[in-house]
Specification:
Beta Polymerase, domain 2; 46% helix; disordered N terminus; alpha+beta
Length: 184
């Protein structure tokens, strides 16, 4: 899951998919941006007939940030009615569709064994998009906030090494306070 997610549905599907994954943070790698760009080109083959935006989000999108080495990609569509037309072509690229996966309004796809990409698809009216982009941009622009966030992530990764869902939830308070404190 990316840094902005906070599960609101604690069903067996969400818990089961997260329970087997350890929280393992890797030092920043410039390779993450390259992986995003290559994957974006593949996604464009599927998305090009539709009005869309594609952004690299999460900590792998922030220079100098340690992160789980899973590249988070956000896609904003003008119309989610086309989602059913995307599931099969995305599956052909290796993506598994997990529906909303605990975050209403966001459609979640995963790729790779071990997991290498998370794809978050929303429509143009969804507030998640703005939050994801805003938080990424704040981290990119404000070294002090980034350093506080990295310390928090490191502490939480140690505390919740075997509880990935709790790790993600515990970051939410910090993320929400940063977003509330930065206008624009």
């Amino acid at each position: 899951m990316n840094d902005m997610e906070r599960s609101t549905n604690r069903g067996d599907t969400t818990t089961g998919l997260l329970s087997g994954f350890k929280v393992e943070l890797a030092p920043f790698s410039a390779e993450w941006a390259g992986r995003f760009e290559k994957e974006k080109l593949l996604l464009l083959r599927v998305l090009s007939p539709f009005s869309h935006q594609i952004e690299h989000i999460g900590s792998t999108a922030v220079q100098g940030a340690m992160a789980k080495p899973i590249v988070d990609i956000a896609v904003r569509l003008d119309n989610l009615h086309i989602l059913s037309q995307l599931v099969e072509p995305l599956a052909d690229l290796g993506y598994e569709y997990l529906e909303e996966f605990g975050l209403p309004g966001r459609h979640f796809f995963i790729k790779g064994r071990p997991r290498s990409f998370h794809l978050h698809v929303v429509d143009h009216t969804n507030a998640h998009w703005e939050k994801w982009i805003k938080f990424r941009n704040i981290l990119r622009a404000n070294r002090h906030v980034l350093e506080m966030y990295l310390r928090l992530k490191d502490d939480l990764a140690k505390k919740y090494a075997d509880q990935r869902e709790k790790y993600t939830q515990a970051k939410s308070e910090f993320i929400n306070s940063v977003l509330a404190g930065h206008s624009g």
